[in-house]
Amino acid sequence: MIERGSGVAVWRQIEDSLAAQIASGALQAGAQLPTELQLAERFAVNRHTIRRAVATLVERGLLRVEQGRGTFVQDNAIDYAISKRTRFTQNMARQNLSSDIDILLSDTVPANAELAGLLEVAVGDEVFRIKTLSRVEARVVDCATLFFPAARFAGLPQVYQRQRSVTRALREFGIDDYTRRFTRVTARLPDAETVDYLGIPKNRPVLHVKSLNVDLDGRPVQYGITCFNGDLVQLVMEDD
């Protein structure tokens, strides 16, 4: 019940009320919040007041906003295992979570000095660049940019388009197994493109992960830069 003139701002009372419903389970993890209009009618306030209360709950990590879908009660973060053999599909399957990958872009670019060193090619050599968007249970959890040495994997973009999996694509080139040489994780604010892809506020840090996979002879097969939605994913370091 909202008490006007109580000395506590109305939006703060609404925030406390919704937080209490989340804590009690009346609003369950993953549940969609009523619309701003519905909440405004329930609490007999204007939509701006609701918007402020909801924004604060988002900042507290109790709610999340998914662009084009609505506002949801935050649920437990998805465990994403980082190990000697990190595999997106297997990570999700062992948690009984459905997943899929959208390909946003696929092209060829000349290797700069950094890419040349990582993929062990010459500066200026062609590398395949593939940008992807990963969903788990229909929620966008990460956007990634993958690089592959083009001379070694001629036609790989078409294979990846069909397979939607690095593991399955590389298998068609005779790479039956590969391992992670390094994984480097930092937290940083997202750029405008990442904000759009992940549907997150521009002031919400993402987990920025750089990784290099090599074949069993130690030759690089794929370098990746992935931005994880930190509200939905927690990285778990595992021994393989």
Automatic annotation (TrEMBL):
Keywords: DNA-binding, Transcription, Transcription regulation
UniProt keyword annotation of Transcription present: yes
Family annotation (PROSITE patterns): HTH_GNTR
Higher taxonomy: Bacteria, Pseudomonadati, Pseudomonadota, Betaproteobacteria, Neisseriales
Domain HTH gntR-type: 8-76
Organism listed in the record: Chromobacterium subtsugae
Gene name for this UniProt entry: phnF
Protein name: Phosphonate metabolism transcriptional regulator PhnF
Keyword Cytoplasm annotated: no
